[in-house]
Amino acid sequence: MQLRYSFRLYPDAGQRTALARAFGCARVVFNDAVHAREDARRAGQPFPKAGELSTRLITEAKRTVERSWLGEVSAVVLQQSLRDAEAAYRNFFASLKGSWKGPRMGAPRFKSRKDTRQSIRFTANARWNITDGGRLNLPKIGEVKVKWSRTLPAVPTSVTVIKDSTGRYFASFVIDTDPAEDAARMPDTDRTIGIDLGLASFAILSDGTKIDSPRFLRRAEKKLKKTQRELSRKQKGSKNRAKARLKVARAHVKAADARREFHHQLSTKLIYENQGIAVEDLWVKGLARTRLAKSVHDAGWAQFIGMLEYKAARYGRTLVKIGRFEPTSQVCSTCGVKDGPKPLNVREWTCTACGTVHDRDHNAALNIKQAAGLAVSACGAPVRPGAIPAQREETGSHGFETGNRAA
Q: In angstroms, rounded to a whole number, what is the distance separating the alpha carbons of residues 264 and 252?
């Protein structure tokens, strides 16, 4: 399977200027592609093909006075920006037809130079390389210093350079992992576990283990309130406002990075120790509309389950999602009698049929495991067929927006 490994970059002043130029050129080509598509739609004409757009917006545009500066950056960066626009339209049309798996996709929008996150991508034909001294050599940018937090397990197929909202730079490498090598990293085990996700405790396991919720956003609220108050008092468009915005972004990123690291460590531990894992298919989007919205977002359940999905697929484990309407908190895990719904403030209850005293969350975790029907054969292989397809995740050093270390 494919994964991404991200590492922090430390470009010097000249390289930051070159990267800013590349970000700007890629943005202009993307916007020109959207313009061309929209003009064709309004005129009732068929959408221009990718080859036609490449010729018109890159090759011919470089010969004009208005777009001559496109020749100052790598042509691969511009071609990849066109491909991104094509992919955005494909996903949009797939969403309209109902064939898109996931949340509904909107039409591609124009990119702004004021966007806090910018990126460019170099494929193999761009002739980028990692030097003997450990620097990342990028065409028309130079050899950029990299903070290597781990060794790349294989030769990367592409690299994406990203500038985040706090002004940090990252190199994100696409790696094809070796299934045999991945399988060898995980020990044989016949353990299975059910997980009930919550807010008071982040996770309650069917073996009785309770994992406290770190509540990273709640802990950072005091500092966030102060920085956001300072930002609101600054004049729009001033340099002081830009500095204040950076402080707010850093406070948010610090909490997000800590949460992501917590999710990675916990998900890796669970995958390492268990052959089968059962979780509830929570409707996070709906829960985020309630009065518990801030706590739901702070917990980051969707991100955690996504990590379990791709790690289970990568290491040959079984992950089962049970339906969100399964009455896991209403059924006695001992005798199976449904005892009816209970308000959230009821944390313990006694089964009226068998008299067993249940911890609400532990009982739910046991029911989740039973509902998933997890079983393991004598040889240690999962009986239940089919692991959930893995999602592409980011692994690597601290502080990347879409993922971190996945050991």
A: 18
CB atoms within 10 A of CB 399: 19
Burial zone of 354 (CB within 10 Å; 0-12 exposed, 13-18 middle, 19+ buried) = exposed
CA distance 143 to 71: 20
CA 163 to CA 19: how far, in whole Å? Answer: 9
CB 351 within 8 A of CB 339: yes
How far is the C-alpha of 32 from the C-alpha of 51, rounded, in Å? Answer: 14
Q: Please, which residues bridge with residue 273 across strands?
A: none
Is residue 393 predicted with pLDDT exceeding 70?
Answer: no
Q: What is the pLDDT of residues 79-127, one digit of tens each?
A: 999 999 999 999 999 999 988 887 888 999 999 998 989 999 999 899 9
> Model-level pTM?
0.84
Hey, is 242 helix, strand or coil? helix
Let me know: does 211 contact 403? Beta carbons within 8 Å. no
Q: Where are the beta strands (DSSP E) in 329-400?
A: 348-350, 357-359, 394-396
382-398 mean pLDDT: 39
Q: Are 352 and 342 in contact (CB under 8 A)?
A: no
Rounded to whole angstroms, how far apart are CA atoms 181 and 213?
A: 33
Taking the CA atoms of 44, 45, 49 and 51 in sequence, report the sign of the dihedral they define: negative
Is the alpha carbon torsion for 58, 61, 62, 63 positive or negative? positive
Phi-psi sector, 352: left (phi>0), alpha (psi -120 to 50), beta: alpha
Answer yes or no: are the C-beta atoms of 247 and 229 closer than 8 Å. Answer: no
Whole-number Å distance between alpha carbons of 67 and 75: 13
Neighbour-count burial of 388, counting CB atoms closer than 10 A to its CB (0-12 exposed, 13-18 middle, 19+ buried): middle
Residues taking part in catalysis = 196, 280, 361
Question: Computed over its alpha carbons, how large is the radius of gyration of the chain?
Answer: 25
Yes or no: say if 113 and 157 are a contact pair by the CB < 8 Å rule: no
pLDDT per position as a tens digit, 255-306: 999 999 999 999 999 999 999 999 998 888 888 888 889 999 999 999 999 9
CA angle 91–97–102, rounded 5-degree value: 55
**10 Å Cβ neighbour count for 92?**
16
The pLDDT tens digits for 142-161 are 999 999 998 888 889 899 99
